[in-house]
Amino acid sequence: AQSVTQPDIHITVSEGASLELRCNYSYGATPYLFWYVQSPGQGLQLLLKYFSGDTLVQGIKGFEAEFKRSQSSFNLRKPSVHWSDAAEYFCAVGTHTGNQFYFGTGTSLTVIP
Amino acid sequence: NAGVTQTPKFQVLKTGQSMTLQCAQDMNHEYMSWYRQDPGMGLRLIHYSVGAGITDQGEVPNGYNVSRSTTEDFPLRLLSAAPSQTSVYFCASSYRFLETQYFGPGTRLLVL
What number of other Cβ atoms are within 10 A of residue A20's Cβ? Predict the structure, then answer.
């Protein structure tokens, strides 16, 4: 069965520091991978996605993610965090069959001045 | 474009009551879906549709019905509300499956 694991429930970083949010997936074939961000009280917004090709993908708001097949991972990174990046981040996988998405449980990011 | 709209924003139900959560999009998207978000559980897919007249079950479909009579609308029906259905519900749409999903603002449901 497909699954997505985000091992870190909550992360706190200082403004200006680098950030890495972890995501591991379980899926038999090459997955379609996504990162979404949810600001408090809002719906989700797509940050970036990976389908194939270059394993390092760039997204909006200065985020990037790297697909590592050998580690079944799709970690999200940002070189310098801004206070406005405080939000909840979700990793998701889309399946080749079944037209369904599976989301991780999310990582809550706090940014301290 | 209004994007994806959801009504109501907040609803309180008693156990056993039924209700419909409305979802509409004005982007001519074929793929629409409903998720529930619970603390520590992330988002779980309830039902989805790949086009008008076509719906299918997601990960947690029990207790919910959907229909897709038009491209624009994708209502979610709770047949007999239970406290376990207390959650925040999100509707999302995309041009096709795997294209960028646009999420509505959510409906917060409390079942007493």
Answer: 13
